[in-house]
Structures are given as structure tokens and as C-alpha cells.
Amino acid sequence: MLKYISAADRHHAAPAAWLNSYFLFSFADYFDRDNLHFGPLRVFNDDSVAAQSGFPQHPHSEMEIVTLVLEGEITHQDTMGNKTTIKAGEVQRMTAGSGLAHSEFNRQDKPLHLYQLWFIPGQKGLTPSYEQKDIGFLSGNKNELVPLVTGQKVLEDVVYMNSNSTVYWSNLSADKEIEFKTFPIRLTFIYVKEGVIFVNGTELGPNDQARMTDDDVVQIRASKDAQFILIDLPASEANY
After folding, report:
1. 11 labelled ligand-binding
2. Closest CA to 78 of 98, 61, 97, 94
3. Could you say which cofactors this protein requires (predicted)?
């Protein structure tokens, strides 16, 4: 079963002059009892940060936080001692676990565009940790699903997280098709960055979503060159 959510139905937030965000799930001042999470995917924010601006130090706990940089670069600093820069095409994972604090700034003279995803971890009280990898997903392999971050250890050369989930990216050319095999006990989430795709026959354009349950196969065909994210998730909390 596929639930289609249009770009217009995202929650738009602009809490500061330097920040423009779209919340796909309840977050901050946006609360919808029927849109709290999708499996362990608790937060998906599509953020644009103005030049020379950013988030001052703030705390987190009991979340797996994944950041995908799409344009520009972000400077990260945390209470674990990490001081890093994440550039476009790179993936960052931070296990907040028992607690940490961090800051995120755009130190460049051009805007920053990123997706930030939070996953409910499979275990509480984890020791905070950090990982970053240059996967080059924005200009990488075409017409396939490229894993970026996962809690499924059968996948290699990806960022690891403490969630039984996998985040994929695809650069799908017009008129090409890919197939994702899943199970009725799993969930599939798709969010389109650009282009047009058909997911099991349903059309999705830029910033549209598909949330899928009880499926065995997900067929994806592009009618225009497209970029999108696909997330494979457990349906049951016992499997997070």
C-alpha cells in the first residue's frame, strides 16, 4: 500500500531569517499526532541555511542522527572533540546515545542545503559516537540504489548506524527503471529531490513523498532525470 504525500503538504518552518526548513514529520513547533514517525524514522528535515549562519551548540540524546549534504558544506563541532567539515556528497552519522552536544554552521559565502534524518535507535544508553564518509552520492553511479548508511552489517563501505534501517540514494536517468525488493514486514520511504519518478505507478515530483507498507516489490521508473532517497525500515518496534 502506498501513501502519497505532496510537496505542498510538508510543514514549512522559517524560525530564523537564516533558516528555511521543511519538516516531513512532527518536529519543534509542528505537531501532528498522526505524523510522528514512520517506523524508526522519527525526523526528516529538508533544511536550507544561509551563508555565515547556523545552529549554536545544543544537546541531543537517544537518537541516531544522519546528515546528508546536498549543496555547500557544514562545519560541525561536538562535545566528543570532533571538529569536522561535511561537504556535498558526504554522509555524517552521530550516535547521540546517553547524551552529547554539538553545533552546525555554514561558514561559506553561499547557501547550504542538507537533509537531516533522525532514527530511533535499537538500543538505549549507547556511548555517543561519530562517523563521516565521502560517498560522492550526488554524482556517483547512475540507475541503481547506492547505500549510504545502514544498520544491516551485510552492506560494506557505508556509514554504520544503530538502527535496522538502510538509507539509499539514486541518480535515475529518464526512462530507466530500478526494482527494490522488500517484505511485508518492512516499510519503504521515498523522497524526491528533483525530477519525476513513478513508484508502483504513482507519480512523484520534486519534494513529494511515498510511504509504503505491506509490499514485496517497489518498482521505480523515471520519466525525467531524477534524484531521490529511499529508506528501508522495519515495521515493528521490536526490530528497530
Report:
1. no
2. 94
3. Fe cation
